[in-house]
Every structure is written in C-alpha cells, then in structure tokens.
From TrEMBL:
Pfam family, one: SnoaL_2
UniProt protein name: Nuclear transport factor 2 family protein
Gene3D superfamilies from the UniProt entry: 3.10.450.50
Residue span(s) of domain SnoaL-like: 23-124
InterPro entries xrefs: NTF2-like_dom_sf, SnoaL-like
Length: 158
C-alpha cells in the first residue's frame, strides 16, 4: 500500500528543517510544479525579514524556504499536536521552538500546515506560524509602538 498524504507530508516535514536532507526530501516527495505558500500570499515588508514569505511555485521553492529558515534560526523543538488526512491531503498542527542565530533569542509558536497530494507527491503546501513571535527573535533594539484598539488612545510598546 502506498504512503498516505499524511505520511508523505510528515515525511517531508521531518526532513525539511535539516539543510542536508531537505533537497532529497523535496526530490522524492514534492511535485516539480508544486505551489508553496509561506506565511502569507504577498507581503513585501515581511519579505524583507523573511525573503521566502509569500506564494511561490516549483519544488525549489520548498528547498529555498526551509534552507533559508535554517540560516536564520536553529530548530530546538518541533512536535505535532494534531493531524488530519484523507486521500487528497493532510493538515498538521503543532508547536515549534526556534532560536535566532544572530541574537540567540527564542520563540515558541504554534504552526499549521495544509498539503494536497497527488500521485504520491505534494502539489500544494501552506505553512502558517506566529510571525509576530518569530520576527521578535530578530529585534535588536528600539520599540514598536502599536495602536490597535479603536476605542482608546492606548499605545502599546513592544
């Protein structure tokens, strides 16, 4: 019996955060014309911090994303809290902890991954995380002043 879409997705994710393994995993498990959505569809300010953010096409987009993630952070933990799958795809939920290489700051974030699989290969993957938390691991000084509540003049310094 061939592996299920959930097993294929988990197999890829188990190797994605290792720069020595991600290219081989993509070759075996990702369709050549697959689409990858990282964090959002298009956000130029976020792409300045995380150049892989956005929608991209091709197997190399998967390799590019995870290779670059691992140049900026060290993965300290990655675990599943829930998984779902059927014959067309999978959803994987969990938490991870990353520590920024440059500043040594850590963040723990929930994540959600959805994938579509056809003929034993991932054809679409979307990866979501708490980008506010992970971006804060790059903050080296200064404050972000946030005004979110329309009913007050409260300013929050982060």
């Amino acid at each position: 019996m061939p592996p299920s879409p959930l097993e294929i997705t988990q197999d890829f994710l188990s190797k994605a955060f290792d720069p020595a393994l991600v290219a081989d995993a993509a070759d075996r498990l990702v369709a050549e014309d697959a689409e990858y959505v990282s964090l959002n569809f298009d956000n130029p300010p976020l792409q300045r911090l995380m150049p892989w953010a956005g929608a991209s096409k091709g197997r190399q987009a998967f390799v590019y994303t995870f290779t670059n993630v691992m140049t900026r952070w060290n993965l300290e933990g990655f675990e599943y809290t829930d998984t779902l799958g059927d014959d067309r795809g999978a959803a994987v939920f969990g938490t991870f902890t990353l520590r920024s290489v440059r500043l040594g700051k850590a963040a723990t974030s929930p994540f959600a991954v959805v994938s579509r699989v056809h003929d034993g290969r991932i054809t679409y993957m979307q990866y979501m995380e708490d980008t506010f938390a992970t971006a804060l691991t790059f903050r080296s000084g200064g404050a972000w002043t946030i005004e979110a509540d329309p009913d007050t003049d409260e300013r929050i310094e982060v």
